[in-house]
Design brief:
single chain; alpha/beta; four-stranded mixed sheet; 12 helices; about 35% helix
Length: about 350
C-alpha cells in the first residue's frame, strides 16, 4: 500500500504494528483521535468525499460523517478563522491547508487570533487547533507548490511547529498535537509521503539510509512535543535537520563512510529540544545545520545563534549551514535547489578540515 486510508486500527491489540507510509500514518492518527474524542473534526478543501489531494483523509468522512469531516470553500483565511472559533467553544479542529504555499492568506487568523487567544483571554479561551499542511519540494510543484515556510511560524509566540520525518513520528506527533491545548502547525514533508525516494539528480541513484516507511503501532500512542531524536550517534560533528532532510543527511553520511556524524532530528521546531542539541554539540565540537527552506532568516539561523550562545567554548569550527537558495523555488532545477549529497558532502569536508 502506498497511499490512502488503512483499515481502522481503533481498538487494535496494544503493541501490534503494521507497515505504513507517512500518509497512512497521518490518516491513522486522525482516525484514532476521532474515535476517542467526538470533538475532533477534520476540515479543508477536498478533505471529505475526495479524501484530500494526497488522500491523507481518505475514508474518514465515510466513517464519521459529513458533520465531522467536511469540505470548505477555497478560503484559507476562512478555514482557519472558523477553526479558531470552533476551538474556542470546545472542539478540536484539524484543518488542512492543501499546500503550505497557500497558508499565507491565513496568517492573520493564525498570528493575531489563534496564537494570542489564550494570552489575550487570560486562559479563559484556548485555540486547540492542529493545522496540517504538506510542505517542501520533491514533486516538481514549482514555486507555488514547494515552499518551506516553517521559519515564519517559529517567529510567532503562541504557535507550536512540528515536522515529522518518519511514519512512526508522524502518527505519534500528530496525536500529541491534536491533544495539545495550543495551536500547532503540523508540516508534512510531501517528498516522503509515499515512501523512500530513490536517486538524486546530483549523484548516482542509490537507496536512502533510514527508510521513510516503517512499522507503526496500531491504536493510540503519542510522542511528546518538544523532544528531538538522535537518529545516529557520532563523535565528529553534530548535524541538525528535520523532515525529508533527515534521510538525505543519513544517506550522505552512509555513502561518505569517513565521517562519524551524529544526526539530530529536531521533530519539533517549537518547542525546541535545546538540551539534546547542546549535549550533542558539546560532545562533537562541530555543528552543521541542514534545511530545505531559504537561507536568509531561515530556522537554521536561529539554531546557529542558539548553538553559538550555549556551546561557544566547545566549538572547534564555525557552524555550517546547508540550505535552499534565496530564490523562488525553481521547477526545472528542483534537484539543484534541494540540499543534496554533493552540497552536504562539501560542507562536511570544510567543517572537518577546520
Amino acid at each position: 500500500m502506498l497511499s490512502g486510508a488503512i483499515d481502522s486500527d481503533w481498538g487494535a491489540e496494544e503493541g501490534a504494528t503494521v507497515r505504513m507510509n507517512m500518509i497512512q500514518a497521518i490518516n491513522s492518527a486522525m482516525d484514532v483521535m476521532m474515535a476517542r474524542d467526538a470533538g475532533v473534526v477534520v476540515m479543508g478543501e477536498d478533505v471529505g468525499y475526495f479524501g484530500g489531494v494526497f488522500r491523507a483523509t481518505a475514508g474518514l468522512q465515510a466513517k464519521y460523517g459529513k458533520t465531522r469531516v467536511f469540505d470548505t470553500p477555497i478560503t484559507e483565511c476562512g478555514i482557519i478563522g472558523v477553526a479558531v472559533g470552533m476551538g474556542a467553544y470546545g472542539l478540536r479542529p484539524v484543518p488542512e491547508i492543501q499546500f503550505a504555499d497557500y497558508i499565507y492568506p491565513a496568517l492573520d487568523q493564525l498570528v493575531s487570533e489563534a496564537a494570542r487567544l489564550r494570552y489575550r483571554s487570560a486562559g479563559e479561551f484556548i485555540a486547540p487547533i492542529t493545522v496540517r499542511s504538506p510542505f517542501g519540494g520533491g514533486i516538481f510543484g514549482g514555486q507555488t507548490h514547494s515552499q518551506s515556510p516553517e521559519g515564519i511560524f517559529t517567529h510567532v509566540s503562541g504557535l507550536k511547529t512540528v515536522i515529522p520525518s518518519t511514519p512512526y513520528d508522524a502518527k505519534g506527533l500528530l496525536i500529541a498535537a491534536i491533544e495539545d491545548n495550543d495551536p500547532t502547525i503540523f508540516f508534512e514533508p510531501k517528498r516522503i509521503y509515499n515512501g523512500p525516494f530513490h536517486g538524486h539528480y546530483d549523484r548516482p541513484a542509490s537507496t536512502w539510509a533510514g527508510h521513510p516507511g516503517g512499522e507503526v503501532p496500531q491504536g493510540y500512542y503519542k510522542i511528546p512535543l518538544g523532544k528531538a531524536a538522535v537518529v545516529r550517534e557520532g563523535a565528529d560533528v553534530t548535524i541538525l535537520c528535520y523532515g525529508a532532510m533527515v534521510h538525505v543527511v543519513a544517506s550522505t553520511i552512509e555513502e561518505l563512510g569517513n565521517v562519524d556524524a551524529e544526526i539530530v532530528d529536531l521533530r519539533t521546531l517549537l518547542p525546541l529540544d535545546i538540551e539534546t542539541i547542546e549535549a550533542s554539540v558539546k560532545k562533537t565540537g562541530r555543528c552543521m545545520i541542514v534545511h530545505e527552506a531559504t537561507r536568509t532568516a531561515g530556522f537554521g539561523a536561529e539554531l546557529a545563534a542558539l548553538v553559538q550562545e550555549r556551546c561557544f567554548y566547545h566549538l572547534e569550527a564555525p557552524i555550517e549551514r546547508v540550505t535552499g537558495f534565496d530564490t523562488p523555488y525553481p521547477h526545472s532545477l528542483e534537484w539543484a535547489y534541494f540540499p543534496g549529497p554533493v552540497r552536504i558532502g562539501e560542507a562536511l569536508k570544510k567543517i572537518m578540515r577546520t
